[in-house]
Amino acid sequence: MRLIITPDAEGVAREGARLVADLVRARPSAVLGLAAGATPVGLYRRLVEAQRAGTLDLSGITVIGLDDYLGLPPGHQAACRTVLERSLLAPLNLPEARRHLLGAGDPAVACAEHERAIAACGGIDLQILGIGVNGHIGFNEPGAAFDARTHQVALAATTRTINRKDFAEGEPVPSAAITMGIGTILEARRILLLATGASKADALAAAVLGTVTEAVPASALQRHADVTVIADFAAAAGLSS
User: Fold this and answer.
1) Is the whole-model pTM more than 0.70?
2) pLDDT grade, residue 104 (50/70/90)?
3) For this structure, is 67 an active site residue?
4) Which CATH number fits the domain that encloses residue 98?
5) Mind giving me the DSSP string for 80-118?
6) pLDDT of residue 30
């Protein structure tokens, strides 16, 4: 793994956007796997700013959604699809034909179609990930099989509690989601993991330095040949020797 540590979340967004921009300049038709958590949004904002400034052309990319909740109505503010549309895809005016997102339709059909879409694109050039406080990547909770493909999952109580803030008061947080499996994620040619905040320090340390185990889903990234981790000082606190 390559590790980049920056002072704060803005630094994480800046360094992450620089890595993505370098890839797209070298490969204008790049296929990007997109996470929709709070951490990557700053990176997406910087990409949109670069496009508007004329320093980066993202018009040729294809995007693959990482995950989404099940059971939310179309356009729900917390849906991963909505977050990606709002923060990146709509500002870029990316054609629908090059947006492959999860969260709509029958889950079993959506899982199979997502895998087919990835294959039809020639695979993912760069998969962007965040990390949960319990070590999840995508919505692959502790115990997820490392060879799993896109599938339906039950969300851990920890995940639902942390994500409570994204929903209206009194509105139930979904108990199920659909996510790329760890096996699918590991097939991306490059992986970018972003982490910010002290709450992620233990999980990041376990993922980067700990034993490779299904109890820490992100530890599977140790098996990948090209992973870059960008973390702020708080998230990287457990990585110091």
Assistant:
1) yes
2) confident
3) yes
4) 3.40.50.1360
5) HHHHHIIIIIHHHT--GGGEE--SSS-HHHHHHHHHHHH
6) 98
